[in-house]
Specification:
single chain, mainly alpha, Arc Repressor Mutant, subunit A, Tetracycline Repressor, domain 2, 0% strand
Length: 186
């Protein structure tokens, strides 16, 4: 079931995959998937081997005022990375750097379970959500890579609140500010 779920989520994304299609690919009844995993969210977390559940940290971000959401996102990222889940998250990130399959699953996890929820909680035009989400992801991924993977100084040893103050305004601008949004050109 997990192999079928990984394939479905990697190929069709969280929104495009269904319990029914995953069960069919695994050759089992959908009730069996529900029995073992309960919900699509739980199946997704198991499939990507997520070391942290967004439901544990997103409510605090979503409760922040709209004009402070960028700082809340950065604070949440640092809190999760500086917590007990760090070794697991680091393993997932390192795997994603060298393995396209892992990259797809990590990308879908970050976008579907975290960034889209943050963007969706704001008064953001639907046509801008994907571009703004990609910009937020670029900033957060850069922070994570610099601080935790490459351990660039003084980023690696900076106090979390200093990073929130430095990076939060940029994330906020990507979420709600004036920005030239990237788009596809045909």
């Amino acid at each position: 079931m997990l192999a079928a779920a990984r394939t479905a989520f990697a190929e069709r994304g969280y929104d495009g995959a269904s319990i029914r299609s995953i069960a069919a690919a695994a050759g089992v009844d959908p009730a069996l998937v529900h029995h073992y995993f309960g919900t699509k969210d739980a199946l997704f977390l198991a499939a990507v081997d997520a070391p942290a559940d967004p439901e544990d940290f997103l409510p605090e971000v979503l409760a922040a005022p709209a004009d402070a959401r960028g700082e809340a996102v950065v604070r949440m990222v640092l809190r999760v990375w500086d917590g007990p889940a760090r070794p697991g998250i680091l393993a997932v990130v390192r795997s994603a750097v060298v393995n396209e399959w892992s990259a797809r699953l990590l990308r879908e996890f970050v976008l579907a379970k975290v960034i889209r929820r943050v963007i969706g909680s704001l008064d953001t035009p639907a046509a801008e959500r994907d571009a703004r989400g990609a910009l937020v992801a670029s900033q957060v991924i850069g922070l994570v890579m610099g601080r935790y993977v490459l351990q660039l100084e003084p980023l690696a040893s900076a106090r979390p609140e200093d990073l929130v103050a430095a990076v939060g305004p940029t994330v906020q601008r990507y979420l709600t500010g004036d920005v030239v949004l990237p788009g596809r050109r045909d």
